[in-house]
Amino acid sequence: MASIDVVDSICIRAPAAEVFKVVADYPAIAQWFPVYHCEIEGEGAIAPGSIVAHRYGRPPFVLSRFRRRVERIVPGECLEESYIDGDLRGKGVWRFAEQDGVTTASYHCQVSAQSWFARLGFRLQGSRAHSAVYEKLLAALKLRCETGGSR
What we know:
By secondary structure, the chain is of the alpha+beta class. It has helices at about 15-25, 30, 115-125, 125-145; strands spanning about 5-10, 35-40, 50-60, 60-75, 80-85, 90-100, 100-115. Helix content is about 30%, strand content about 45%. Helix 1 (about 15-25) crosses helix 4 (about 125-145).
């Protein structure tokens, strides 16, 4: 089975608490990264046990669909999730480390491909398949946070 284990990161001139707040607001991600849509199943903000449905791409060109369960939240520090359904299975961890007003935001993704399209992407590109998406997402996150978009 095709799988990846990759960490993508970026430095953002904003406090870790603010960067975390932007990432943890899943339904609002599409406002600053329109190709990525997330929906919390049920109501309210995320909490341990929350299920979040993710879609990368716009219909009819959806490239990936999966659901993640929030496992652990440490506000301003980390957000741990399990990929439980859809094109990917495994785990992902957001980490936020601040030093001198600059936050390093990183996402560690350890997943196996479940769909033929994901398997093909992982076999052809390996970790680069994931990084190609997350480099764009992280750049959009940086822009959002550095221009005051989290407020």
